[in-house]
Amino acid sequence: MTSRKTFNLFTISEARNVIFGIATLWIGLFHSDYMTLSRITDNQFFIDLFGSFRGMGNIGVDMFLFLSGIGLYFSYSKDSHVLSFWKKRLKRVLPTALLIGIFYFSFRYATGRYNSGLPHYLSRISFTYFFFKGERVFWFISVILALYIVFPIFYKLIERFRLWGMLGLVAVIVAGTFLVRAVAPGFYSIWEIALCRVPSFVIGIWAGKFVMEKKEINRNWLWFFLALAVGMTALLTSYSPIMKSLIPGYNKEIEPMYIFFYRYTGTILAITLVILLSWLCTTIRHKGRGNLLRNFFEFVGMYSMEYYMIYLNVNHYIERVYQTKPEHQFMLYFGSFVVSLALCVLVRKVCDFFMAYMQRKPKDLEELRAARKALKAERKQKKA
Predict the structure, then answer these.
(1) Which of 15, 63, 122, 141 to pair with 286, CA 20 to 30 A apart?
(2) What is the number of alpha carbons within 13 Å of residue 292 lying toward its C-beta?
(3) 154 Cβ neighbours under 8 A, 6+ residues apart
(4) Given this model, what pLDDT does residue 316 score?
(5) Helix axis angle, 260-286 relative to 139-183, nearest 10°?
(6) Rounded to the nearest 5°, which phi and psi values hold at 383?
């Protein structure tokens, strides 16, 4: 039995898809630059509050990476065979990513948006182009595939040294980030969006053990996480004024060189939000309330990767076609959401069918061919 005075960390796993859904929609809102409340209200406080909430939506990426680290810990603990782990991860991500990527980049090349040749095309559809040129189309897919590759190393170091292993890895990653910043600022400016997010993933792997073992902590810690979330939110909303007061001549051009402050603050906020949201989801569920909303977020969370890849581009193209006006912003946003979610379901079904077909045993294929031949023969007889 769980005490009312304790919080079971396993609730993070139980609420995983719900939080995935929230994070995914938050990321989508972040990329919908046209969204504002100025059309609805003249109250500047609410306009600024919504703008700040939308502007922090990229923290959803850190939430996703933290939860991914926890989920991969579960998976690898059950089967620590490296090749088997990589095979399962790639089967989960690559078919869908390749289908969307091939369609998107082929369309861009066919319409003349890209004309950089076959090598660049192959690099784009293999999701390696980000590491060479820093193109941020589908950059998250490039990064998550790279993290899958290095995950077994991270896992073994953290399993052996626990807290010190996690802290050591984070220290090495942060030091490596600053080394790239000092030695190769050009590469830092294109890689920082990924490099500064890796600590979220590493901390998630470390937390995975406590979540899987259903570790309980005193509920008073939730107040600490709430205070931490409020503090980090205040820092993020004041990020630009703070940087301008600390760094003479700070502007948009040099912002990427100092954005690590924003990224690492976002990491802390993302982790606290995951904990608080998991507690909130579980509390609401136990009281028998909010099931419809919970199911909605959980449904979106099931298609989080597909939605990320599809929504950003659907929203972008619809916005270009209709040249968004203030009175159309909510129609555009919800229209993009509905279209993207429908495409997510369709893409998943196509990929599932393709994978099921590819995994059929030769015997099944022979039976299928025999059935087709029998059907053709039957049709010929009827015609005769």
Answers:
(1) 63
(2) 0
(3) 169, 201, 202, 205
(4) 76
(5) 140
(6) -65, -40
> Which residues does the chain have with pLDDT short of 70?
1-4, 286-290, 321-327, 359-368, 382-384
Query: For 116, which DSSP code?
Result: S
Residue 54 tokens read as: 């939308």
Which pLDDT value is given to residue 244?
Answer: 87
Residue 9: left (phi > 0), alpha (psi -120 to 50), or beta? Answer: alpha
CA–CA separation, 354 vs 359, rounded Å? 9
The pair of structure tokens assigned to 352 is 């599932």
CB 16 within 8 A of CB 71: yes
Task: Tell me how far apart the alpha carbons of residues 245 and 259 are, in angstroms, rounded to a whole number.
Answer: 15
pLDDT for res 263: 95
What is residue 334's predicted lDDT score, i.e. its pLDDT? Answer: 86
User: What string of DSSP letters covers 52-76?
Assistant: HHHHTTTHHHHHHHHHHHHHHHHHH
Element (H, E) at 7: strand 6-8
d(CA 319, CA 312): 11
Q: Half-sphere exposure of residue 45, counting CA atoms within 13 Å on the CB side? A: 0
Tell me the one-letter amino acid at 261: F
Residue 42 main-chain phi, psi, to 5 deg: -100, 0
Give a three-class secondary structure readout of 279-316.
Answer: HHHHHHHHCCCCHHHHHHHHHHHHCHHHHHHHHHHHHH
Measure the CA–CA gap between 195 and 260, rounded to whole angstroms.
9
Instruction: Please give the Cα distance from 318 to 282 (Å, whole number).
Output: 37
Using a 10 angstrom Cβ sphere, with 0-12 exposed, 13-18 middle and 19 or more buried, the burial of residue 196 is: buried
pLDDT of residue 1: 42
Within the chain, residue ranges assigned H as helices are: 11-14, 16-30, 44-55, 59-78, 82-110, 118-125, 129-133, 139-183, 185-195, 198-212, 220-237, 239-246, 255-258, 260-286, 291-302, 304-322, 329-358, 362-383
pLDDT value, residue 323:
59
From CA 301, how far away is CA 356, in angstroms rounded? Answer: 23
- How much is the pLDDT for 253? 82
